[in-house]
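does this look right to u?? uridine-5'-diphosphate version
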Amino acid sequence: MARGQRPVALVTGGAGFIGSHLCERLSDEGMDVVCADNFATGSAANVVHLLDRPGFRLVEADLTEPLDLDGPFGYVFHLASAASPRDYLRLPVETLEAGSLGTRNALALAEAHGARFVLASTSEVYGDPLEYPQREDYWGNVNPVGPRSVYDEAKRYAESLTMAFRRARGTDVGIARIFNSYGPRLRPGDGRVVPTFIRQALDGEPLTVAGDGRQTRSVCYVDDTVAGLLALARSDLTGPVNIGSDEELSVLALARLVREITGSDSPVVFVDRPVDDPRFRRPDITLAAERLGWRPRVLLEEGLRRTINYFRAQRGLPPVSEWV
Ligand code: NAD
Ligand code: UDP
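got this back:
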């Protein structure tokens, strides 16, 4: 597990939103990091600030092809997959392959290196949930042939494959079911609700609330998400374990909050709701609290302010004031 006494972590999808924060945090903690990405939805710009660090390596690789990477790896974090609905609807086959072939290749690598494998699964495995809040023992309500199924079923398969490697081959695995995360490095055009509302508010465009906006989400600041992934990696928990905020709010309330913090007077407009859009979503995070000692720390207003300030900085604008 060590190269020159330092643990090496492989982060697949490391040039994406969550992956880049994970790479940074692992590097901050003194680990050697290999970031493998095919840049389908991520960008080298997200990790460019890490390239000069000793022990950090960026490798262009498609996880759906067999991998031959220098380790030895102590940890394999498997994040490679489109994650935004706009991206996975645009890349349906690639998304299914990242979840199936990609997960298989990442698991095989972890097995070969005797590494601990952490799967970035998703709250989408619960589909449009019929139980509330969602506990890990809920099996979900997924439409297997709907447009979102390319993502949901890929992740359900990835979880199943991960469990098969553990049961049949003794691979050391942990499954994180990540709920909506947000923060700096989200792309303004990736279509997810937080970056979309922020971009629209900063551009003075109407905020596009889907349906009547009463559907709920519980959004978690990316630093907390990354802390949850690390806690899982360092534990012996197989899971699955929910990693997300339990501070739930409606999409309409989120739009109003973004308007308030940005000081924007953009109107809200109501647009069609996507097919199979889940009506509500809130994790039960008891398992993470009890087994990992983890819970989110960053309050929504603070996380949104940091994210808005990132978007403003990208446009050369000063940060918003501390007080809203
Ligand atoms: P992202 O799109 O920003 O990052 C995904 C990264 O994976 C990108 O850099 C992309 O180029 C890379 N990738 C995709 N296919 C690949 C392939 N075949 N080979 C190599 N690299 C590939 O998305 P994100 O929000 O950072 O999500 C990261 C992971 O976390 C995903 O697995 C996603 O399913 C999971 N997740 C994210 C959220 C969230 O709210 N952001 C919620 C639940 C689960
Ligand atoms: N949404 C919205 N306006 C947008 C983008 C998304 O109202 O411009 C809604 C979307 O319909 C869903 C919620 O916000 O109800 C979260 O969507 P997102 O795509 O961020 O993630 P999901 O949780 O659906 O994967």
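The pocket of uridine-5'-diphosphate (ligand 2) is lined by residues 85, 180, 192-193, 196, 208-210, 215, 217, 251, 273-274, 277 (CB under 6 Å). idk if thats expected tbh
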